[in-house]
Amino acid sequence: MALTRARKLVIFVLVLLIAFAVTIAIAFVAVAPLSEETARQRVIATLAERLDAQVELKELHLQTWPSLRAEGRGLTIRHHGRTDVPPLISIAHFSADAAILTFFYHRHISRLTIEGLDIQIPPDHNKDKGDDDERTGPPSIRQPDRAESMARTIVVDHLYSMGARLTIIPSEAHKPPRVWDIHDLHMTSLSAGMAMPFEATLTNAIPPGEIETRGSFGPWQPDDPGGTPLGGVFAFNRADLSVFDGVAGILSAHGQFGGRLERIDVHGETDTPEFRIVKTGGHPVPLHATYHTIVDGTNGNTILDEIDASFLNTRVIAKGDVLGNPNVHGRTVKLDVSIERGRLEDLLRLAVDAPKSPMSGALRLRTSFVLPPGHVDVVKKLKLDGHFALAGTRFTSDTVQDKINELSRRGRGKPGEDAEQDARRVQSKFEGQFALAGGTLTLPKVQFDVPGALVQLAGNYALEPGTMDFKGTLFMDAKVSETTTGIKRVLLKVVDPLFRRDGGGSAIPIKVSGSRANPQFGLDKGRLFSNQRHP
Asked: What is the spatial distance between Cα 269 and Cα 255, in angstroms, rounded to a whole number?
């Protein structure tokens, strides 16, 4: 189950309140001669009330001379007191240090260190039941007491978090959790009313890879958390795409982001030197992309304003969104994709396991693209619905191209024309509609055109086994008898009426079956005497 807006806000609020709790502890020492045990109980009570949580703090040690220092161990927070799941937040050790004069006159803590921060987000069972639990939102802020008011004015010069981890626990017990390791986090000028610069390195969960980021966050807007400003730059290195079923490659990315938490503008670039589709057995290709996205940082939904990708000599433009569904685990990608000046040989190199592309030509394509979530091979869950056109198409195999040239000569009624003199090497045109679902490519209408002949087909092509089943009609400018020479030309005149079409020429019902490696072409005898010459 994807995290809701409120739950994601709680994650950040909880982390900030951990830092806030330490400053409260120091403020207590500054305003009252509290014992360590009294201060420990006061911190526990404050966190429990603010977070509606069961809080444990094993140790809290305070020092007032020659400098101020607070040090704690074994802090755990169970949101709503839940004991059926791991603690929401655990901290192995934290400490804060401040010079006495600097603290009293300028309200500055020089250093706050958090070690072993572990955040574990359990499944939202109330959300699964359709019951919005408002308690998961940011805690209400009650009237602060004197110590807390002082804490609000405190500035932490440097905050260091080391060895932190964020874990998302799935609702399905058999699924592994998603884990983000935040190796190092450094924030400066941490305060309730200031922008807070930060630097962090972390391991992304899916796809796995290392992220380095720096920027500024805040000031925090307690009445409108989504309006909290942020901005910065990032670099994403060695992201392994093989975790997505059906594709492979190592991706790197870099870019910049800015805006508000509920609307983050991201501009970036990605490079995947050897991107490939695994199941089709195609060749790896260098894939480069630039993109502009708008991310809602409170729920993870993303608007893809533009993706401009290119591989070899083909450019792909896409727009759409990546949205979560409250009833489904994961997110659905929906795009409108266009290729205006692509090359067929580039696409086939990505899709076909052959030393060289079987065809070449100019490609134009427009399609919708829907990729739902789930651990299913990309080829099987991907949905496409669009139109394509190929121009100037040639077959790289001389044998196949010779047959196309021969089809053109026969279609024009010139079967005896010397092939050596046919220097044009006939170029073909393809055009049609297509839809992909469940790993099957459906072509409700596809047209293949060479001088003198036109083929119209409709049918299905199963991508993974590579089998096909098409029916259609071959239209020729010539009569059937004119497609050959000698005695055959004379004998075939008796069948010309069977294939005659209005306006002259002939129309022959055909079918295509077999596999991609061994296609079978033949006369569709079932439609020979019917009027169903068109697919």
From this structure: 6
pTM for this structure? 0.72
* Local structure of 291: helix, strand or coil: strand
> Whose CA is closest to 264, among 305, 206, 222?
305
Q: Which two tokens stand for residue 270?
A: 């990605």
Domain-terminating residue out of 205, 224, 253? 205
SS3 473: strand
Q: What angle do CA 315, 317, 321 make, to 5 degrees?
A: 150
Given the DSSP bridges, would you call strands 68-79 and 53-63 parallel, antiparallel or unpaired?
antiparallel
Tell me how far apart the alpha carbons of residues 144 and 192 are, in angstroms, rounded to a whole number: 14
Q: How many domains, in total, are found in the chain?
A: 2
Give the model confidence (pLDDT) of 156-169 as tens digits.
Answer: 899 898 888 878 77
Q: Taking each helix axis from N to C terminus, what angle separates 36-51 and 5-31, rounded to the nearest 10 degrees?
A: 150
Q: Is residue 317 part of a domain?
A: no
Q: What is the DSSP string of 160-193?
A: EEEEEEEEEPPSSTTSPPEEEEEEEEEEEEE-TT
Summarised one tens digit per residue, pLDDT across range 315-330 is 999 999 988 776 677 7
Residue range 46-72: average pLDDT?
84
Where are the extended beta strands (E) located within 375-505?
383-395, 428-437, 440-450, 453-462, 467-476
469 vs 354, 463, 511, CA distance in Å? Answer: 23, 12, 8
| pLDDT score at 250 | 92
Say how far apart CA 35 and CA 62 lie, in whole Å: 8
Residue 361 forms part of a structural domain? no
Considering 169, 188, 205, which residue would you say is the last residue of a domain? Answer: 205
Q: Is residue 244 part of a domain?
A: no
* Residue-wise pLDDT tens digits, 349-402: 887 777 777 788 899 999 999 988 877 777 778 899 999 998 888 877 777 778
**Model confidence over 23-50: pLDDT tens digits?**
655 555 555 556 788 888 887 887 777 6
DSSP string across 266-290 = EEEEEEEEEEEETTTT---EEEEEE
Structural domain contains residue 291: no
The whole domain housing 518 covers 397-527
DSSP secondary structure letters along 349-378:
HHH--SSS-SEEEEEEEEEEEEE--SSS-H
Give the span between the Cα atoms of 238 and 201, in whole angstroms.
Answer: 14
